[in-house]
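Thread: "does anyone have the structure for this chain?"

Original post by V.I.:
We have the sequence but no experimental structure in hand. Need at least a predicted one for the grant figures.
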Amino acid sequence: MDRIYAVKGVLDKGFTGQISYSVSLAKEYKNMKITLEFDKEKQRYRDEEINKDVIEAFRAECNGEYNIDAASDEEVKEMVKGNCKTEIHLSAFLNGEFIGCIHKQLASRTMSFGDIVSEGCLPVSKITGALKVTVLVFNVIKNETAYSLTVECE
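Reply from O.Q.:
Generated one for you, C-alpha cells below.
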C-alpha cells in the first residue's frame, strides 16, 4: 500500500476535543487503511507515577460524583490504575458519508476498507473523493502524548 497521508501531533493532559484531517483521494483505490497510533506508555499510569499529587487530583475530581473521601490512599491508587486512561478514538467520512468509527481502547488501531472491512466500518463501493478523518479525544492523562495518523491506499 502507498502512504497517501501522514500526520503527527502531541496532546497534553486534560485535552478533550476533536481534530479533523481532510485528504483528497485524487484517484479511485481498491483498498484503504487508516491507522491511528499513540504512545502506549501514556495510556495509563504506571505504579511509580501514582504519587500523592495524582491521588489528590483524582480524589478532588471524583469526590463530588463518587464520594471517595473515605477511601485510603492505597484504595484511590488502585482506582487510578483501574480507571484512569487516555481515550482516543477514530472516525472516518468519505464524500460526506459516515464510513466507520473505532472505539476500542487500543493504543494502535486500523480501519480497513475494500477487500477487508474492519469491525465498526461500513463497506465502501468507491474509495475516491474527499476523505475526512476525525481523531476523537475524550481524555488525555499525561502531557506530551504523541499520536500519529496515516492513510494508506492501493
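V.I.: this helps a lot. The chain has two helices and eight strands.
O.Q.: and The longest strand covers residues 17-29.
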